[in-house]
Amino acid sequence: MAWKCGAIAGPLGPGLVRPATEEFTKEAVTALRAGKVIAVPTDTLYGFACDACSLGAVNRIYEIKGRQHTSPLAICVGDVQDIGKFAVTDHLPSRLLDNLLPGPVTVVLRRGDSSILEKSLNPGLNSIGVRVPDSNFIRLIARGSGSALALTSANLSGKPSSVDIKDFQNLWEHCAYVYDGGVLPSGRAGSTVVDLTSIGKYKILRPGSDFYTKSDTILVLGWRCS
């Protein structure tokens, strides 16, 4: 499937609740291609997702969260091999990303000069956070969308993260669909954010789920902490 940018966002959805099962991935993809926002479970927290190539949809996520546009959003792709479409990975050891992902880790990489991401996504930054969650539902959606997903926690900015759809029930009306994956076991810990923009070293920007396991993985591969 060709990777391409989506259209400008359409009208808000009714916040229909659906189970987070494979049979509903097609409707989720349709909503994303129409520029709408959906709420989905990940391997850490519930998140708001939209087409990362749609300016209108990205702006809508900021509006829903009441978040400043200067706060960056991460992107989510379906598979590790898709990361190179959006970020620079040539400097990484061949096994590094495969050992970290899929999993509860956000890898921060330099944006590629030929990246197809919406240019207004995280303006002024030459890096991008990328996720491949260990969650089949959101990965199926990302694969089917033909684009990367902009992904952020499903909550108002500054409020506690959501591990149950009831935690952000006041925001359902702003989503086309809310996909219920039950109560997530992460204890409100988000992903571990690790900066891999420099050659031969890494920096933990935010410890989160599976922090020690993933840090040890990087050390085993010969990188040092900066």
Automatic annotation (TrEMBL):
PROSITE patterns associated with the record: YRDC
What this protein catalyses is:
L-threonine + hydrogencarbonate + ATP = L-threonylcarbamoyladenylate + diphosphate + H2O
What EC class is this? transferase
**What is the annotated localization of this protein?**
Cell membrane; Cytoplasm; Mitochondrion
Gene Ontology molecular function terms on file: double-stranded RNA binding; L-threonylcarbamoyladenylate synthase; tRNA binding
Q: Does the keyword Transferase apply?
A: yes
Q: Which residues form a coiled coil?
A: none
The EC designation for this entry is: 2.7.7.87
Q: Which GO terms are recorded in the biological process aspect for this UniProt protein?
A: regulation of translational fidelity
| Transit peptide recorded as keyword | yes
Record's InterPro entries? DHBP_synth_RibB-like_a/b_dom (IPR017945), Sua5-like_dom (IPR006070), TC-AMP_synthase_SUA5 (IPR050156)
According to Swiss-Prot or TrEMBL, what is its membrane topology?
Peripheral membrane protein
Could you list this entry's UniProt keywords, alphabetically sorted: Cell membrane, Cytoplasm, Membrane, Mitochondrion, Transferase, Transit peptide
User: Self-association or partners: how does it assemble?
Assistant: Interacts with RSC1A1.
User: Which family is it part of?
Assistant: Belongs to the SUA5 family.
Role played:
Cytoplasmic and mitochondrial threonylcarbamoyl-AMP synthase required for the formation of a threonylcarbamoyl group on adenosine at position 37 (t(6)A37) in tRNAs that read codons beginning with adenine. Catalyzes the conversion of L-threonine, HCO(3)(-)/CO(2) and ATP to give threonylcarbamoyl-AMP (TC-AMP) as the acyladenylate intermediate, with the release of diphosphate. Participates in t(6)A37 formation in cytoplasmic and mitochondrial tRNAs. May regulate the activity of some transporters.
Supply the name of the protein.
Threonylcarbamoyl-AMP synthase
